[in-house]
Design a protein that fits this description.
globular; mainly alpha; two-stranded antiparallel sheet; 184 residues
Amino acid sequence: RVEKTEEGYELVQGFRRLSAFQELARETGDPRYTRIPAAMVPRGEPLIGLYRKMVDENLIRKDLSFGEMAQLALSYAKDENIPVGDAVSTLYASAIKQKRTYIRQFARVLEGLEGSMRHPEAMPRALGLDIYKLIDSQPERAGEIAASLRALQDRNADAEIAVLRSALTTSKPASARVSQSVSK
């Protein structure tokens, strides 16, 4: 779905479909993927209505990641100039409390990484929660991780995930030992 603007058209819904068409056009060179059917959205529809439509459509999908949900909440918070927690509460009101908590934590990770993560959708839940705990306990680490992400030459999802995992392994104290049981 698109909305008419002075500059042309603005995408309202269907980012994944549009991305899939663009990727198919690049990979195949087939001209039928250079155009995509779109429906017009009435101009001036309230922003909350547009975001709620996106959320409702995407929550139906089981493969929607916490990174994607957090990114959407961050965008809405920025557009509406509200705290991210409020954006999560508004957009994901129908989600269970634990899911909203995860989305808030992923949003905190993405905020802490200063927009340096290009593939938040690839971040597994467990890794995202571990990075959240790291950034929450050592806020200075967020800037270091962001710098490592920006320094990547090959900015694909696997490389970004490797940087995040590396940050977790370097955060453990070198002197930590596994305690051994002394019971007989």
